[in-house]
Amino acid sequence: MSGVFRLLVFCMMALSLALATSVGDGRWQSKVPESDRVRQNPMAAEAGSIAAGAKLFRQHCASCHGSDARGRNRRPDLHSDRVRDATPGQLEWLLRNGSLKNGMPSWSRLPEPQRWQLVTFLKSIP
Ligand code: HEC
After folding, report:
1. Which of the four pLDDT bands, split at 50, 70 and 90, describes residue 126?
2. At residue 9, does pLDDT exceed 80?
3. What integer best gives the mean pLDDT of the chain?
4. Does the structural domain 26-124 have CATH classification 1.10.760.10?
5. Going by C-beta distance under 8 Å and a sequence separation of 6 or more, which residues neighbour residue 122?
6. DSSP character string of 60-85
7. Cα(101) to centroid of ligand 1, in Å?
8. Is the pLDDT of residue 117 over 90?
9. Which of 22, 31, 41, 64 to mutate to test the pocket of ligand 1 (most atoms within 8 A of CB)?
């Protein structure tokens, strides 16, 4: 009996691991059209853009990604190679479109300059 129980526990652990790795896998990147991928960030050199992006992050994003952007539950850590290596255009595309199936909302209701400020902030994360 305890053998069956151990097998059950093992299966549950394997399942939760599979679920935990099923989001934040970066598959959204393959959906970004080339014309979006190469877009430059018009706010990148604006004074105060990082601070403005940080404020927007606290308002809209910290509830899922954590105030330190370290991620929580199944929401990805944003201090990652993938976020670091993504182009500004890819990140803006993700914010505009979201990754709805995986639980990342669309931020198309924010004015475009604010999305670019968020991108500036994301790019400032070490
Ligand atoms: C309701 C929870 C939620 C909120 C709020 C949220 N996100 Fe996300 N975010 C997610 C999830 C879940 C994913 C994983 C999506 C995927 O991989 O398809 C994600 C993915 C990302 C990614 C890509 C990370 C990677 O490794 O691929 C970035 C960048 C990101 N979010 C930034 C933001 C920003 C900036 C905001 C605020 C404007 C925000 N998120 C708000 C849940 C959220």
Report:
1. confident
2. no
3. 90
4. yes
5. 53, 78, 83, 91
6. HTHHHH-TTS--BTTBPPSSSHHHHH
7. 12
8. yes
9. 64
